[in-house]
From TrEMBL:
Similarity section: Belongs to the peptidase M48 family.
Gene Ontology biological process terms in this record: proteolysis
Keyword annotations of the record: Cell membrane, Hydrolase, Membrane, Metal-binding, Metalloprotease, Protease, Transmembrane, Transmembrane helix, Zinc
InterPro entries per the UniProt record, alphabetical: HtpX_protease, Peptidase_M48
Organism: Streptomyces klenkii
Domain of life: Bacteria
Residue stretches spanning the membrane: 144-164, 169-189, 195-212
Cofactor list: Zn(2+)
Domain Peptidase M48: 61-232
The protein, known as: Peptidase
Length: 283
């Protein structure tokens, strides 16, 4: 629900763009765009998203053979049909996998090269936990409907930052004017037009979404631990945390707080695993 205001803004942008092209399209194009949301869950659309937007590829025959054996063990424990989800490979230097799209699980080439089958199974079980919880489906639909608003926002911020960062006085002045105009527009929209129900959720939405993402990660970790992969997953998280805290890695900015993210997940998994193994009646 927190992304609904962003979707409303996207709808307004699509409608405005359509009306500029042809007034008759002002209603037709937004309706088509709204109805196109469920189409992103079609297998062909998911494959296109995985390949062109997420930079994934289908596994080679050797990779597919290994992944199939590991995935069979994970899905057998979970009681899930092995063919429900497709395994893809990402060329990324991280020891993880990704629950992408509705039926796609992406594993990094680095994980395939570095992880033994037991730990690879733990990572895949974590991503299966995301799919079982419905997180990729909801995230993909929210991202689709928020896409126009995010594209326009990134375009505006890029232009403003380029102008403010220019050495041209006129460019800096234009960037400042655009910034002031934007702040004034948000103020009028929030207080004069009493449309705080749009601006407030848009402002706090990223923080709430980040919290939801952390909770989803912990739930997926618990799911993997419930399938019997707790120790292996903790070993992977500990290795990732050590890699992120090495001097050469620490010298680079951590995207999304990678250091604290792995540490927090590891602590949560240690607590939940300890609670699961604690004898009944023991505090």
């Amino acid at each position: 629900m927190v992304t609904v205001p962003t979707a409303v803004i996207s709808l307004a942008l699509v409608s405005s763009a359509a009306s500029l092209l042809n007034p008759a399209l002002a209603l037709l194009l937004p309706a088509v765009w709204l109805l196109s949301g469920p189409l992103v869950f079609h297998r062909s659309a998911e494959a296109a998203i995985a390949r062109f937007l997420l930079g994934m590829r289908r596994p080679t025959p050797a990779e597919a053979e290994r992944l199939s054996a590991v995935w069979e063990e994970v899905t057998r424990r979970a009681g899930v049909n092995q063919g429900t989800y497709e395994l893809w490979v990402q060329e990324r230097a991280e020891l993880n996998a990704t629950a992408a799209a509705g039926h796609i699980v992406g594993v990094t080439r680095h994980a395939l090269d570095r992880l033994p089958n037991s730990r690879l199974a733990a990572v895949l079980a974590h991503e299966l936990g995301h799919h079982v919880g419905g997180h990729p489906w909801a995230a993909m639909l929210a991202d689709w409907y928020a896409l126009p608003a995010r594209v326009v926002w990134r375009l505006i911020t890029t232009v403003v930052l380029l102008l403010l960062g220019s050495r041209n006085l006129a460019g800096i002045a234009c960037g400042g004017c655009l910034s002031v105009t934007f702040v004034w527009f948000v103020y009028v929209l929030t207080f004069t037009e009493s449309m705080w129900w749009i601006t407030l959720p848009v402002a706090i939405g990223p923080f709430f979404v980040a919290w939801l993402h952390r909770r989803a990660e912990c739930r997926a970790d618990d799911y993997a631990a419930g399938l019997g992969f707790g120790d292996e997953l903790m070993a992977v998280l500990a290795e990732e945390h050590r890699a992120q805290t090495k001097p050469e890695a620490a010298a680079q900015p951590a995207v999304g707080g990678a250091h604290s993210r792995f540490e927090a997940r590891l602590r949560h998994l240690q607590r939940s695993t300890a609670g699961r193994h604690r004898p009944a009646g023991q505090p």
